[in-house]
Write a structure and sequence with these properties.
The chain has helices at 2-28, 32-58, 72-101, 110-136, 139-168, 175-202, 209-220, 254-271, and strands spanning 227-236, 239-248, 275-284. It is mostly helical. Strands 1-2-3 form a three-stranded mixed β-sheet. Helix 2 runs parallel beside helix 6 (175-202), helix 3 packs parallel to helix 5 (139-168) and helix 7 crosses helix 8.
Length: 288
């Protein structure tokens, strides 16, 4: 979790510098696509703050008020980032359409150099943060990574639009604004893709089948476990909470059944480290 916080902090600093550079270049270079890109970077700043805050809350230990921990804060922050992306996309689209309808100057050629640097930085940051998200199993960090990728896409679209405007000459000035409009569609799509898994976690959707198979296999490997059933898993932050019914010899004493359930919990946590809490219901084996 601490690594995720560091990645969010790195993104925050980078986005702040890039937003300032793009805004100044866009204003001085008469490029609305670059200004729209700067707005997207400002949204990135707030998203990194949201992810940072969400991860800090999610890293807290469980207490009496929240006995299952604070992991859901991560999913909430991920959903907020997705909503921010959608809001930024709609705002950029509205302004792009307005700029298309209003004649204006062609963008300056130096803005292309700025965009090349921005794309390189944001794509590198995307790959680094996404790799960290996959290792951590964090939806919020993954959302922050895709926010970086959307920024790289808007910058690339702005580069294409400005290039067309400069090559085409008079009459092609609006190509810059069409690029911003296209970028807004990409951002809107990325925002919706971020929200979907976040809402799934908040609604306690079951994880992929591979997680079920790994947990069931680990439990059945324990000596004394005759079969398992009714496995329920939900995700809270980067961790799994689960319930499992274990059938064993009906003649086991309550003490021995308790010992067996402890072995099952230990084996599951060893096999699947992301499992945080395991509730085992011991039942008498009733045969096939």
């Amino acid at each position: 979790m601490h690594r995720g916080i560091r990645l969010a902090r790195t993104g925050l600093i980078t986005n702040g510098l890039l937003a300032l550079i793009k805004l100044l270049a866009g204003v001085l270079g008469h490029s609305y696509a670059l200004i729209a890109d700067a707005v997207e970077s400002v949204a990135d700043i707030f998203s990194s703050l949201v992810v940072w805050g969400g991860l800090r809350v999610a890293s807290r230990d469980a207490d009496e008020r929240y006995p299952f921990g604070y992991g859901k804060a991560e999913s909430v922050s991920s959903a907020i980032v997705g909503l921010m992306l959608i809001g930024a996309a709609l705002g950029i689209a509205i302004e792009a359409i307005r700029e298309i309808l209003i004649p204006h100057h062609a963008p300056a050629s130096f803005t292309l150099i700025v965009l090349i640097v921005v794309v390189a930085i944001k794509e590198t940051l995307f790959r680094r943060v996404l790799r960290g998200a996959q290792e951590l199993g964090s939806q919020a960090v993954a959302a922050d990574a895709w926010h970086h990728r959307s920024d790289a896409i808007t910058s690339a679209a702005a580069f294409v639009g400005i290039s067309i405007a400069l090559i085409g000459g008079p009459g092609w000035e609006s190509a810059d604004d069409w690029a911003a409009l296209f970028a807004s569609i990409i951002i809107l799509y990325n925002g919706s893709q971020i929200i979907r898994p976040a809402l799934a976690d908040l609604m306690d959707q079951s994880p992929e089948d591979a997680v079920f198979h790994a947990i069931e296999s680990a439990a059945r490997e324990v000596e004394g476990v005759l079969t398992t059933e009714k496995l329920r898993i939900r995700k809270s932050g980067t961790k799994y909470q689960l319930e499992l019914h274990v059938q064993a010899n009906p003649e086991l004493s309550l003490h021995d059944a308790h010992i067996l359930s402890g072995k099952v919990k230990s084996r599951i946590r060893t096999a699947v480290p992301r499992v945080e809490n395991v509730l085992v219901h011991m039942e008498p084996f009733e045969g096939e």
